[in-house]
Each structure stands twice: as structure tokens, then as C-alpha cells.
Amino acid sequence: MPVPPGWGFSEAAGLMVTAPTSYAALVHCAGVQEGHYVLIHAAAGGVGLAAVQVAKAFGATVIATAGSKRKWEVAREFGADYTVDYNRDGWPEEVRKLTPKGRGVDIVFDPVGMINASLKCTTWGGKMLIIGFTSGNIEKVAMNRVLLKNVSLIGMTWGSYSKEAPEMIGKVWEELFRLMKEGKFKGTLYTDRTFHGLETVGEALGMLGRRETWGKVVVSVPQGIGSKL
Questions:
Q1: Contact assessment for residue 74 and residue 214, using Cβ atoms and an 8 Å cutoff
Q2: Beta bridge pairs of residue 109
Q3: What is the average pLDDT across 17-44?
Q4: Looking at residue 135, what is its pLDDT?
Q5: pTM
Q6: Residues paired with residue 198 on neighbouring β-strands, in sequence order
Q7: Which residues touch 69 (CB under 8 Å, ≥6 apart)?
């Protein structure tokens, strides 16, 4: 896989998994298109920022959830139309009110584990993309609500494509490189500070664990000098 034209190595290092996961989920699984309202949870994370850009590239309106002012700012910088604090009680109703006539969102992109709450703000016939469970909570979904709203629950793990759908891998990357060439997709490298050398890995992991970062955190390893470990 070549480094995208105009990208640095650090930006490219954060591209794998998050970009194809978001693209395959939104485009090939959910059929995102112009006019759709898309709810993206943890929108300032690596996979979330990739999803924001993909949804916007296809003309959707993006409602991004995140848990801090800085992360709302980042989500908007990457194209989100609206931001919502998912730590606040009543956030599903806030999301619903942002959609035309309060009908709810067409697509939910969830790498956190918030399907049950998101059912409250999903339109009839909507699609819910289950990307992961970063909250640590594997939900038991109220299937009666899934039935009554005619929604589709779609699981997505990019790692399984190499075995189950290898023909899709090249196609997805080709389409992503087209978006990059058109200026519709950029790197999600965390830039509020940098991490140089293996001795900074512990600090980087600590910040990740405390949810103090956004995008993809990359530790650069200096070449040609001895380790400080």
C-alpha cells in the first residue's frame, strides 16, 4: 500500500483499519447518500473522524457526538455539521430535533456501544452500524424496538474482509484514494502534541486511556540513534 500523495509517514501510519472500516461500513453496508442524516458516535476518535469525512464526501449531514469541548471542535474541523454531548441526559432527543421534522437519523455509526440509546433517535427503516464496543459494554438490544422501527443492525469488522470478501479490499482502497485526491479525505493524526521515541509510549497510552486525545496517536521512532529505554 503506497503512502498517499502529499501525506507524511505519520499521517499514513494512522490510516490503516480506521479509513477502510468507515468507508466500507457507510458506503457498502449502509449506502450513505446525499440527504441522509448520519449520527456518528465518538466522532473525534480515529475511526469517527474517518467516518465524518466519508459521510460528508457523499453529501450527508453529520451529527457528531463526543464528550468534550475540544473534541467537538475537532469534529467540526473535519466536517461535522452538528455536535452533541453524549454524556448529557436526553442527548437522543437533542439529536432527533436536529433532523427534518424530528424524524430521526438515517444511519447510526457506533464504535462505542450505544445502540439502545440511539434507537430513540433513529428513523423508521434506519440502519445501525455496529463498529465496536469501546465503552466496554456489549449491549443486549431491545429487539422489539428494532422490529417496530424496521431498523437494520449491521455488524462491521474490516479484519474479516481478507477472508470473507477479499475482492472488496482493493475496491475500498481505490475509492478512498480517489477521495484523498479530490481533497475530501485527510489524515486524522493527533497534533495537539507529538510523541518521539519509544520512551514516550507509556505517556501516549496513558493519554489514550484517559480519553485526552483525538484522532490517531502516532509515536515516531528516531532512526540511526540508540534507544533511551
A1: yes
A2: 40, 129
A3: 97
A4: 83
A5: 0.93
A6: none
A7: none
Give the pLDDT mean for 162-177. 95
Q: Are the CB atoms for 38 and 61 separated by under 8 Å? A: yes
Q: Provide the terminal-to-terminal Cα distance of the chain, rounded to the nearest Å.
A: 31
Task: Please write the tens of the pLDDT for every residue from 51-101.
Answer: 999 999 999 999 999 999 999 999 999 999 999 999 999 999 999 999 999
Residue 179's Cβ-count burial label (10 Å; 0-12, 13-18, 19+) is middle
Which cell is 204 given? Answer: 501516549
Which amino acid is residue 168, in one-letter code? M
In this structure, the number of other CB atoms found within 10 A of the CB of residue 16 comes to 12
Q: DSSP 3-state assignment of 59? A: coil
Tell me which amino acid residue 102 is: G
Can you give the length of the chain in residues? 229
Q: CA of 11: how far to CAs of 23, 30, 142, 149, 218, in Å?
A: 18, 27, 40, 40, 8
Contact 123, 150 (CB under 8 A): no
| Amino acid residing at 6 | G
Distance, CA of 229 to CA of 217 (rounded, Å): 20
- Provide the β-strand partners of residue 215: 45
